[in-house]
Design goal:
Layout lengths: L3 E6 L3 H12 L4 E7 L2 H11 L3 E4 L8 H11 L4 E6 L4 H10 L3 E4 L5 H11 L4 E2 L1 H7 L2 H9 L10 H11 L4 H8 L3 H15 L4 H11 L3
Parallel strand pairs: 1-2, 1-3, 3-4, 4-5, 5-6
Helix pairs in contact: 2-3, 3-4, 8-10, 8-11, 9-10
Length: 215
């Protein structure tokens, strides 16, 4: 296969180093960028336009699901492969709904990772066997067919970003500086998040985010 450009996003440097070695060893593939959080991953991918972006789910600042959603919307030619330790139904459904073209469990990384990246680079999808079994479940297929949305999906892109940052324990001022918006705007987003999710306070936001696997 011709040269494939790849972006790796995982908050563990050792994991990224290991993945880089597997991917570049003996192939005309190139890992052109690495990111330790979802926000940087999206920015780098939009700038460099790799053929394949490999995202972990549990990343700071912006989780892999939201990063996938934003990247696919802005750069649909970049195929996203989720590489995660989580293989349960909720994570798989969210990843596929967000636009991921592949989902691989970290415990399967190795030869299967090569197969997955090759598939995505060729315009195909790839799901490891355990994940495929989850996807075949009637409940998951029913959700995909009916397009059922939960309250989280009613949030705007910016509100989802603010929600994660709030759940991570960041102050309103920190969020404003990180997103380059005013403190008043952050407060407005926080209020709308509480209203849309029918939550009463920050503790509720944290609990909601934990249950959704956002943090």
């Amino acid at each position: 296969m011709a040269e494939v450009t790849i972006l790796l996003a995982d908050d563990h440097a050792l994991m990224r180093q290991g993945l880089r070695k597997i991917l570049e060893d003996g192939r005309e593939w190139s890992v052109i960028a690495e990111a330790a959080n979802g926000r940087d991953a999206v920015a780098l991918a939009l700038d460099l336009r790799p053929r394949v972006a490999v995202f972990d789910i549990a990343m700071p600042q912006m989780n892999g699901i939201e990063a996938t959603r934003q990247l696919v919307r802005r750069a649909p030619n970049v195929s996203v492969l989720i590489l995660s330790m989580h293989g349960d139904q909720a994570y798989v459904t969210q990843a596929v709904t967000a636009g991921a073209r592949g989902y691989l469990l970290k415990e399967s990384a190795g030869a299967e990772l090569i197969e997955a990246v090759a598939a995505l680079a060729s315009g195909r999808s790839f799901f490891s066997a355990p994940v495929a079994e989850v996807m075949l479940d009637d409940y998951v297929r029913g959700l995909a067919k009916k397009g059922i949305l939960d309250r989280y999906d009613a949030l705007s892109e910016r509100e989802r970003e603010v929600l994660q940052l709030v759940a991570e324990g960041r102050s309103t001022k920190e969020i404003a500086e990180l997103l380059f918006i005013s403190v008043a705007t952050v407060e407005t987003h926080r209020t709308r998040i509480l209203q849309k999710l029918d939550l009463k306070n920050t503790a509720g936001v944290v609990l909601f985010a934990a249950r959704r696997g956002i943090v």
